[in-house]
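The freezer alarm interrupted the setup, so I double-checked each line after restarting. Inputs confirmed:
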Amino acid sequence: MMTGKAERAGVMGWPIAHSKSPQLHGHWLERYGVDGAYIPLPVAPEDLSTAVAGLKALGFAGWNVTIPHKQDMLKHVDMLSPEAKAIGAVNTVIRQDDGRYLGHNTDAYGFMENLRQVQPDFDFQGKTALLLGAGGASRAVVQGLLAAGVRHLSIANRSLDRAEALAGDFRQTFQKVPGLVCQAIAWNDASQAAASAQILVNATSLGMEGKSSLNLELDALPTSALVTDLVYTPLETPLLAWARARGNPTVDGLGMLLHQARAGFEAWFKTSVMVDEALRQAVLSS
Ligand SMILES: NC(=O)c1ccc[n+]([C@@H]2O[C@H](COP(=O)([O-])OP(=O)(O)OC[C@H]3O[C@@H](n4cnc5c(N)ncnc54)[C@H](OP(=O)(O)O)[C@@H]3O)[C@@H](O)[C@H]2O)c1
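Predicted 3D structure, all chains:
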């Protein structure tokens, strides 16, 4: 039940009808009895600045940002967090105590929190990782892994130039870290790089329902390596099924979505919430 003091937030994108965020946040609002609302905000690209001005005028607590506005939102907020700057995109906007709006990015946090919740004993410090993909989501993975202490990261992507640009950006961001290796490798070299990987991340869209499976030979990957997939439809992708069958620790991608959302919810509604099975089921059945 809302009162006149309810905090308001939402998710801005175009289109937005497919978004799971309203169900996700709606579950927490109801479960924790929060005086607040979270609504879909369909905003066409040409209306972005008017829409942001409107939400600011209405005093929204903040909002999530999705395709196609994540990069454009960088220009529409009053200040940026270090994560938003490093990743080059805003997925969460948070009203500050002084009324200004912070552009933040919680994807790296969501990615790492998911791994930490499911594999709490895994230590990232000094580890070697292999990342497949160099799209928008990969930027958050790189930020998360390097900030967590990974010291050797190879990025394999079908389009090598994209992996090179990504690796170059983060070498710059983490230039003060001694001995850090953050390099692009050719897609076909991923099989060889798998032999020394202690963490394997799929951040391509391969393995998603309706798309082809990952077409890489990864048999050299040690069975102790942590394997995670950002794709969560299906929840157990062919990569995760393969990894689980050979004994690798695995983490599915749904938790990343849930944990990145938690960071925004807690900032807007000043309420601590949990990512648990009830939430996973609520989102999966939506
Ligand atoms: N779990 C979560 O919370 C979460 C969050 C964000 C994204 N995701 C998922 O992560 C995946 C990537 O998202 P994104 O935003 O980074 O997408 P994106 O920017 O479109 O990037 C797609 C990536 O997949 C690669 N790719 C596509 N088709 C390929 C093919 N046939 N062979 C080899 N590589 C191929 C692309 O390589 P090129 O550069 O060569 O095109 C690129 O690296 C999506 O499935 C998305 O649903 C999950």
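Quick read of the result. The domain at 123-248 is CATH 3.40.50.720 (Rossmann fold).
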